[in-house]
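Morning!

This is the sequence you dropped in the shared folder:
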Amino acid sequence: MVCFLCLFGYIVYLQVIASASLLANPLNSRGNDASNIVRGAVIDIHGKKLADSNSPGERSYPYGAVMAPVTGYLGDNIGSDGVEAMTGSDLIGQSRQMQMLGPIGQAFQADRGNDVRVTVDADIQELAYNALGDNRGAVVVLDAETGAVIAMVSKPAIDPSEVEADWNSLKNRKDSPLLNRAAQGLYPPGSTIKVLIADAALDEKVTDLNEKFNCSGKLQIGNEYIGESHGAVHGNNLSLRDAMTVSCNVTFGTLAMRMHGDGLKDAFERFGFNEPIGCEFHESQCHLPDFAHLGDGDTAQVGIGQGETLVTPLRMAMLASAYVNSGKIMVPYLVEEIISPSGIVIKKASPQKWREVTSPQRAGIISEFMENVVKNGTGGAAAVSGVRVTGKTGTAENSGGRDHGWFIGTAELPKRKIALCIIVENSGGGGAVAAPIASQIISALKNR
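The structure's back. Tokens below.
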């Protein structure tokens, strides 16, 4: 009887408590088993097909590598990834509840699975992919008010239809084409983190809008110093707004040291960099320094986005979104609708607030700083006529080669507010390389 109760308890655990995580596991082939079922299509927000099947066991990807970070891949021996993994049971017409019924659920099985409509705009995805050119990097575009992912680009990528055949060589490639850099790539944020540092400094009251800073081109810390990019000297009487506009390392290194480890730790935690998002797709965990044991030099490095801080492009797009959404960050999501073969919407996304990270008043202040970066500072290449564009550029030092170029920002379009992040690996300055890509994306979305 004891053995029976143990077995019964374990079955209940597998079928009820652990069922969701086991079914979502990309190595669980049951969620992709469609031997007698035509797998449903994955379509973009406008109805364009991103993945499709005409017969059981067959799958095509019209956009190939362009959409790989979104659609993911599907294979008998390698499991699945992306939307193919997260909605695998829906695509074969078996909800998780029906799969839990086992053989009984097969009585309700149709010969074609459900279609999945995602939030991504295929035209914007393709534009961003092409704009990266031959560079490695990532682009994330979000609807700031809902969290809907408009584009999620990673480069290099591989056509999902080729992944299983080339699996052994792909997983060992040094350029990591199977890595979704948008959500899983970890990079030092460089000067893009200065928007958070400015917000934190005002919140911690270690400065105010009236203080004037002096930039001699170097911030002396013991026997070492932090210098400005290209040896720039920004001079006297810099306001916090001015310091953001010219991306002054001396000012932001100073502010970080004033806040010390505790103030910086509180700021990064307030913005959720220490917590998982709880969204549909897998994101690498950001790496933060041990704030309690930082010396002055390392603390100053945090203030300019260097040192041990590593973040994903997705997180930086979310950071930017707070400043165009009154201090709120929404949960990013990809799946808009699940549609039955008869055209009935079975499930529909419901946008959710993730957290409120700053006050509406302070969000407005930082947003105005970022707008001035585009109008009069390092982010001028992101400007679009007739659109309020805000931004912050970044150039992140990279021990493995040339610097990475960053741009994060927002745009207030006629129909929505968007936030975006672009990183171009080993490209040099973000203002010259990443900001123009933002301008192309904003221009394309202006009237959509």
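Headline: The CA atoms of residues 159 and 214 lie 52 Å apart.

More detail when I'm at my desk.
O.
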